[in-house]
Automatic annotation (TrEMBL):
This is Transposase. One of its GO terms (biological process) is DNA transposition. One of its GO terms (molecular function) is transposase activity. InterPro entries: Transp_IS110-like_N, Transpos_IS110. PANTHER family: TRANSPOSASE, TRANSPOSASE FOR INSERTION SEQUENCE ELEMENT IS1111A. Residues 21-166 form the Transposase IS110-like N-terminal domain.
Length: 173
């Protein structure tokens, strides 16, 4: 009895042929689109704003509507925001979940693999709050940091006063 070939994924249906993917890096982003849409389906882009705008223009010229991006750090945030401003449906993906397949060790193959998974609808997006909530969270984190810094500076001032005036043991708040 001959075993049927599974090459080409006969059981999987492509749900998003206009999908693209980006493997986010600190110095370079590798982007992949459907190979049928262009002669060069994987390209490298820089991380500066003009590079990200060029990426969005390239995606638009390739007919992309949805983009999955994988990153383990915070480098995905500018790309996410710029692509979202250009009207793309952007899905941040945890890189650990998408890269558990052996044999894909280069950025080019990672980007192509992510695009393939996204085109079949196999990637689950990470939670990203709405823009207003994300802004509020950033303000709250900054406030928390400033309060922590203020507490540390007060302790430094108290130490200096105690060191120069041993009879002062406590500073009135």
């Amino acid at each position: 009895m001959a075993k049927e070939s599974t090459g080409g994924h006969p059981d999987l249906k492509m749900v998003n042929p206009s999908a693209a993917a980006i493997d986010i890096g600190s110095k370079m982003h590798m982007a992949a689109v459907n190979p049928d849409s262009t002669a060069m389906p994987v390209r490298a882009f820089g991380t500066f704003t003009h590079d990200l705008n060029d990426l969005a223009v390239w995606f638009r010229s390739c007919g992309v509507t949805s983009v999955a991006m994988a990153s383990t750090g915070v480098y995905w945030i500018p790309a996410f925001e710029i692509l979202e401003q250009h009207g793309f449906n952007v899905i941040p993906v945890n890189a650990r979940y998408a890269k558990n397949v052996p044999g894909r060790k280069t950025d080019v193959s990672d980007a192509g693999w992510l695009r393939q998974l996204h085109s079949y609808g196999l990637l689950r997006g990470s939670f990203r709050p709405e823009a207003e909530i994300a802004t509020l969270q950033a303000y709250m984190r900054q406030r928390e940091r400033l309060v922590e810094y203020a507490a540390a500076h007060i302790q430094h001032m108290q130490k200096v006063l105690v060191d120069f005036h041993p009879e002062v043991t406590r500073v009135a708040a």
